[in-house]
Please model this.
Amino acid sequence: MGTMRLDRFFSSQEILSRSEVRASLAGIQVNGLPARSPEQKVDPRSDRITLRGEPVGYQPFVYLMLNKPAGYVSSTEDGRSPTVLELVPPELFRRDLFPAGRLDKDTVGFVLLTNDGAFAHRILSPKSHVPKTYHVRLDAPLTEEGIRRLAEGITLADGTLCQGAEARMLEDGRTPLVEIILREGKYHQIKRMFGVLGAGVLWLKRVRIGGLFLDETLSEGRCRAILHKELEEILLNYPATAFDPKAPD
Ligand code: URA
Model:
């Protein structure tokens, strides 16, 4: 992290938007001198930036919620396809951002982007049991037998054993809609699990990470900062113990 524009510094810290900084520099000082312009370069680690006399601390970590559209890959670089990072607007973009967990190119929904490796590890490690909730359209109904097998832990075609997953039918329309909750993230896991049950996945969306729902006002392709209290929801608002399929409701 080197220098950045003053307006971008304020917006990245969610203190003032870039347009607010552009509209007025009143009350902003850099190293004791009134700010000169929104484009002024500042080094958040060494410059003393104040707003109305109050020091503005620099938060090194950022956490973004992206509503991923189909067609984007969940990596920082890809020679052929656009990446989820290309959807981050300049005022939120940081070069050290990466997606905490992958969704397939054709999967849509909640991708958490961050530059905090320890936090990403916490939400991704199967040991943390942070649930990820998906909505899935299938080409065949999910039977009671299928729900039971998912809860017990499906063995994939290559012999990989999956942890128990909670699944329920949401609606049985022209294409059945199912909710499924995973606490691990194996490659193409949901598609492979339903494949074992003889159902094809027509559409897949991640709607929740831990206790935090994808903000449905965020249209596909849009991204916003995750608020501090929402970060806590991701980690705290889920059962402390692992899912036990035999536990009573
Ligand atoms: N399972 C899948 O098969 N694909 C995803 O993108 C996520 C979970």
